[in-house]
Amino acid sequence: MTTSDRRRPAEGPRPSRSGGANLPGRTAELELIDSLLTGDGPVGSGLLLRGEPGVGKTALLDAAGARAANLGMRVLRASGTEFEAGIAFSALHQMLYPLRHDVDRLTDPHRDALHQVFGLTQVPVPDPLVSTAVLALLERITAEHTVLMIADDVAWLDRASAAVLGFVVRRIADAPVVFLAAARTGAEALFDQARLPEHPVEPLDARSAADVLDSHSPALAPGVRRRLLAEAVGNPLALRELPTALTDRQRSGKEPLPARLPLSGRLESAFVAPIAELPAPTRKLLLLAALNGDAGLPMLRTAAPGTADVDDLAPAERAGLVHTHAITGRVTFRHPLIASATVHMTPPPERRAAHKALAAALTDAPERRAWHLAEAATAPDEPVARALDEAALAAWRRGALPAPDPHAPDGTGVSDRRRVATSAAVTALMRAGELSPHPVDRSRRLVEAAFLATMTGQLDQVNRLLADAGQAPDTPTGLVFAATAHLLTSDEGDVDAAYRLLARALDVVTDTSQNDHWDHLGILYALLLVSLYTLRPEPWELLASAMDRFPAQAVTTFRLCYDAYVDPSRKSDAIREGLADAFAGLPTDAAPWQLIPLAFAAVAMDSLVEYRYLLNRMIERERDGGAIAMVIPALMLLCHDSYVHGQWDEAEKLAQEGLDLAVSYGYHFWERQVRALLASGAALRGDADLARARSEEITTWAAPRGMDVTEGYARSARNLAAIGQGDYEEALFQAARIDPPGAPSPGVPGRWVVLDLVEAAVRTDRIEDARAHVRAAQEAGIARIGPRTALITAGAAALAADDGEAGALFEAALALPGAARWPWEHARVQFTYGQWLRRTQDMAGARLQLGAALETFERIGAAMMAQRAAAELRATGVSFTPSDTATDPLTTQERQIAELAATGLSNKQIGERLFLSHRTVGSHLYRVYPKLGITSRAALRRALEAVVASDEDDRLP
Question: Which of 14-18, 59-63, 654-658 has the lowest mean pLDDT?
Fold first, then answer.
């Protein structure tokens, strides 16, 4: 009989998959364990799992024990612990204790030897006899069961037990006994002499790590999630424990994460122990390296003269804690949490001394020096406060940290470090306020922190910071007003109150010679936002008056945005040239406040597509702890641009990301703006019910707040939904609420609604109203704003013309340069042209135009208009099978609900996002499950992935 035959039960079951079923990314290890248990693998009867702390060795041993039990094996287990390492036979006692009643069946010498192990006799027994007694006991037990022996953390086994188990391991090759052990990387022990085959347990791959984190902490803010994944580096224990050490505000992203993440008790136990064993000089160098993320040997020599030498790093390198690059000398921690543990285990006085030493070594880097001095300070210190203040302002103005983040995980690039620039500036200003000995300086710095907090998603901190700032005689009152206005706008959408505050802010600003003064930037940006979302002229007039008080070059971005919204038809060429020059003149890492006014102007001129890459770069840099208040509108503007260019899936992805950020950080103003765009998106896709529900919610919110532009977008959604359904009375009513017939506005969104109103008027036999609206649009110069408005105006003119002129006007509209760049409007003009051709009995021409319109509607996802185009084509005598026969078993709304449910959202949360009741959501899910062939929410994710894969297969040639 072979060894594997002796090991496998007679009936031959395979190991049950229940053990280790919840170990993502460990398929290879579990298969290796299965082969060990059944004797089918390459490693014989013993195996040592070796890996770093928290990597999951114990979980694999647990899985092995469960699988062995399912096979009918007897499982014996012991774990080495530091406090029992000095007690002889303590581990052997733990492992053999379940067999204590079988000991009396052995011969007297063996029985007495094991009684000594169990503490049942005081008579000393030679250690070799204990070893042979254990073999005898195993031989008796294996007559009835195959045995699995598990030894965890063998480095902490007491020497007596380690010697006995090593003796046993070398003698079980032909016995029905399996030995499985685990040890930390770098931990040396007597048991190593057993020379078991080793298998390295590596960190989880990126996908498995994300699965572990999401399953344990599904509601983390995106930036927090990315930070935890980066710091955990695939360590399962860290993935589970790091979120538990954070506060609710930190997990939600409302409060910046600390420089070094706090460690739970389990993480401290896992990572602190090997550091604590190092000599004091080594720990000192590790602390300096941990506090200054890009530290190299020259820096360490300078920061630790006479008290520690770089050779003192050798013990840490031998223990595998750090690595020193042979050429650059940069010191890199094997795992980021080793650096965190080094900092956390160090008493505060020693940490402050290390910061002070680093500051002294950074004489050529004043901004980095300021950060270390601030960490070392224990009392108010104006020079330190001033240096930190200047560093914070530099971070905001440049859109970057003043220095590489000393707390970023090793290997983090500069662009990654800059993501936390603005939130770091808030923290720095608050610390500068604490270190300010004079009330006036303290007040100013806290007001600056409050203003920046409105930008970084810390809205609930603004009032507290302003209150803490007090009202010292020289408090920058203008910035107080600006911060409060930002808060009112962002949180409540109260633009009228914000406008009044900003008017007062301008009254107290007298010195406009400093182009980048905080008061000026804050007031102008807040006033621009108020102006963009109301049709009242007063905010725009106040903005014009404010800009006149500054040098022209200081307000170029605001001036371009003003012209794009207030005077676009007369200055369109100059605006486009100005935008091209302004975007070209931006630095590579342009600050958000430089970009956003230009992006709003580019959207108004339908030219953002040329500059999308700049916005994407800013979003990537700022989305994690940066200027969230500018990331959200950037995503919204990109969404708008994607919609007008027919990239509707991309538009909805961008909108959802912006909406998630707005909801998470409490930017209710931006939340409503994004929802208004999504309402139009639903209408474009033909989901009229969803479009109306979203539109009504936005209108109810916007109307009493005087947010005319937001209300206009919401009504535009209902107008588009009605057009898709052919309900032109409703379409005309909604379009007329944006701009009345005969009075089109070159503003936003009026300039884009001309075709909608004219078509609705024509279809409801109000032809004179339609023609009056076209004439007024032409006189207002709306066509001169840009190629898109030119197509809209030309299409409207053709639609309203009499039959003698309509054909030529339709042809002229479709022949406009770049007309096809706007697929929705282009297909609309083709569709109406095809309808006119069919009505005038030109069936061949009608088929050509309607077929082209149908192709575009299907391509961009305009389902309702595609149905109407198909119906018109059939009326011309064309018989065809629609190309969009659904392979997806779900409706649009069912898929939307299912995808949200698969992310872990509750029915109530899904309902809040989609403006549905939780009962409606539940009803939809009840219909979804049988369509997908599942019975529970837990199976949604894989079922949806299968549908997507099926769709992709269907599209293959």
Answer: 14-18
Question: What size, in residues, is the chain?
Answer: 957
- Between strands 322-324 and 331-333, the pairing is antiparallel
Which residue shows structure tokens 């108020």?
Answer: 530
- Residue 96 in tokens: 């053999």
Rounded CA separation 424/155 (Å): 42
Q: Give the whole-angstrom CA distance, residue 745 versus residue 753.
A: 9
Helix, strand, coil fractions of the chain, as percent rounded to 5: 65, 5, 30
Which range (6-10, 378-382, 425-429, 662-666) has the least confidence? 6-10
Q: Supply the pTM of this predicted model.
A: 0.73
Q: Is the pLDDT of residue 554 over 90?
A: no
Contact between residue 592 and residue 628 where contact means Cβ atoms under 8 Å apart: no
Would you say residue 227 has pLDDT above 50?
Answer: yes
CA distance 646 to 822: 7
- Which residues, including other chains, have CB under 8 Å from residue 286's CB and lie 6 or more apart? 275, 278, 313, 316, 321, 322, 339, 342
Are 140 and 109 contacting, i.e. CB atoms less than 8 angstroms apart?
A: no
State the Cα–Cα distance between residues 248 and 254, nearest whole angstrom. Answer: 9
Closest among 187, 185, 192 to 335, alpha carbons compared: 185
Per-residue pLDDT tens for 436-489?
999 989 998 998 888 888 888 888 888 888 888 886 556 667 777 777 777 677
The C-alpha atoms of residue 943 and residue 355 are separated, in whole angstroms, by 53
Dist CA 629 CA 465 (whole Å): 18
- 8 Å CB contact between 204 and 24: yes
pLDDT at 753: 97
Strand partners, 667: none
Tell me what pLDDT residue 736 has: 97
- Decide if 417 contacts 405 (C-beta within 8 A): yes
The backbone region for 147, taken as left when phi is positive above 0, alpha when psi lies in -120 to 50, beta otherwise, is: beta
Cis peptide before 439 (omega within 30 of 0): no
Mutual angle of helices 366-376 and 382-398, in 10-degree steps: 130
Helix (H) or strand (E) holding 180: strand 177-184
The closest alpha carbon to 605, from 633, 644, 635, 636, belongs to 644
How is residue 847 written in tokens?
Answer: 């088929």
Alpha helix (H) residue ranges in 97-221: 108-117, 127-141, 159-169, 206-216
> What pLDDT digit, counting tens, does each position of 798-810 carry?
999 999 999 999 9
211 or 460: which carries more pLDDT confidence? 211
From the number of C-beta atoms within 10 Å of its C-beta (0-12, 13-18, 19+), residue 936 rates as exposed
Q: Cis omega (within 30 of 0) on the bond before 274?
A: no
**Cα–Cα distance, 932 to 251 (Å, whole number):** 34
Residue 508, judged by CB atoms within 10 A of its CB (0-12, 13-18, 19+), counts as middle
